[in-house]
């Protein structure tokens, strides 16, 4: 461990502590099946009424005309729902059956509208948030129930803590800032110091190999001076802020084409209290780019075995507020994609948008537990036993009828 501390602290290496294979926070997992699952947490409470617009509801225009600019029929999906403009690049996937949505869904969380508690409940997959529920996430409990799971089965990606993947099952982690800026001398030192170390030699080799395969490793001809190093790190930080979501998708796809079978990461920016039209367009564009990259990088064979679930902690108010935004609500939508999805449809028991139909006369009324859609995906994609899903993976869940999400 002293050698690890030395390496992290030594300026001669020319790389950040985050680049160390002992420090990188990302999660992936491998398992005894060939299907792939990607879970994306949309942090900030995505407005499902905006992303998947129920323009066919007679009350929608009065509630939302200020956000949509009037008619949304040109973005029609099925005669009742319309696609947010930021998601238009994915329309070909919709037509191919590789994109779908579940609407009027939520976790059991009600009324408190705290992002932190809402996200914890979503990732824990439980009915409430007692002490035990905060310790592990539903994806990790899934992995705990499957023999043969290794750290290469699942990956948690990004800097956000992923309660979703926390637990006793082995999970790997990685973040976009985990780049390796090594001079030839530093790389030689790193490999030499760890050459005979049974604990760290493999980790060092794997970290360098993965970084090289993704184009994240920079090997300058000469050792940089301090000013050059600072400038390079600043430029890298700017690039990560702009392109972090695409780097997550690129890394996830690369690992899913190899040993990994599950990847999980977060996309932020969905809290739209004001100026929602611009804010949600930016976040929606990132989500569309991530799904598009996964589709392109995985290729037809792997994409055909893949399902992507994009879930959010709760929805937003049905009415627009005075700042041209929406406030914390209840029901929302779930975005689904993948070649294994029976897409090209919106799954919903639509509650209506009349004042009396709204939850607490302010929010979209949830008509199905979002956990049920996740559970049916696991049931159909991986063959997980229903009893196990309702008692261990999602304690207290009644999955209800099969919505036939998966081919």
TrEMBL record:
Pfam families per UniProt: DUF1501
PROSITE patterns, A to Z: TAT
Protein name: DUF1501 domain-containing protein
Keywords: Signal
Keyword Signal: yes
Leader sequence residues: 1-29
């Amino acid at each position: 461990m002293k050698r690890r501390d030395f390496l992290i602290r030594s300026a001669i290496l020319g790389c950040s502590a985050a680049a160390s294979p002992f420090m990188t926070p990302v999660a992936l997992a491998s398992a005894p099946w060939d299907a792939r699952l990607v879970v994306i947490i949309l942090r900030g409470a995505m407005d499902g009424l905006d992303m998947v617009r129920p323009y066919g509801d007679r009350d929608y225009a009065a509630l939302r005309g200020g956000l949509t600019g009037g008619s949304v029929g040109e973005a029609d999906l099925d005669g009742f729902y319309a696609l947010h403009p930021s998601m238009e690049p994915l329309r070909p996937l919709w037509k191919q059956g590789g994109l779908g949505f579940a609407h009027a869904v939520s976790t059991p969380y009600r009324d408190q509208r705290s992002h932190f508690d809402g996200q914890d409940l979503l990732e824990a997959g439980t009915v409430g948030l007692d002490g035990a529920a905060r310790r592990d996430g539903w994806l990790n409990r899934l992995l705990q129930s499957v023999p043969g799971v290794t750290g290469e089965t699942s990956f948690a990606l990004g800097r956000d803590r992923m309660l979703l993947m926390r637990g006793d099952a082995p999970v790997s982690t990685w973040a976009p800032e985990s780049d390796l800026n090594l001079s030839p001398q530093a790389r030689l030192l790193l490999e030499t110091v760890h050459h005979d170390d049974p604990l760290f030699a493999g980790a060092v080799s794997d970290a360098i190999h993965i970084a090289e395969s993704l184009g994240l490793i920079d090997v300058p001809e000469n050792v940089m001076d301090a000013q050059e190093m600072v400038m390079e790190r600043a430029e890298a930080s700017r690039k990560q802020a702009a392109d972090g979501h695409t780097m997550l998708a690129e890394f996830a796809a690369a690992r899913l084409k190899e040993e990994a079978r599950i990847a999980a990461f977060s996309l932020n920016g969905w809290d739209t209290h004001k100026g929602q039209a611009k804010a949600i367009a930016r976040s929606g564009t990132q989500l569309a780019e991530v799904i598009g990259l996964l589709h392109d990088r995985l290729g037809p064979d792997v994409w055909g075995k893949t399902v992507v679930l994009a879930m959010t902690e709760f929805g937003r108010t049905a009415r627009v507020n005075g700042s041209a935004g929406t406030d914390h609500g209840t029901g929302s939508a779930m975005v689904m994609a993948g070649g294994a999805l029976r897409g090209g449809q919106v799954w919903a028991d639509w509650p209506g948008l009349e004042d009396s139909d709204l939850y607490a006369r302010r929010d979209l009324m949830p008509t199905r537990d979002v956990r049920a859609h996740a559970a049916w995906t696991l049931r159909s994609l991986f063959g997980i036993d229903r009893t196990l899903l309702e008692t261990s993976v999602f304690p207290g869940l009644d999955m209800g009828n099969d919505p036939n999400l998966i081919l």
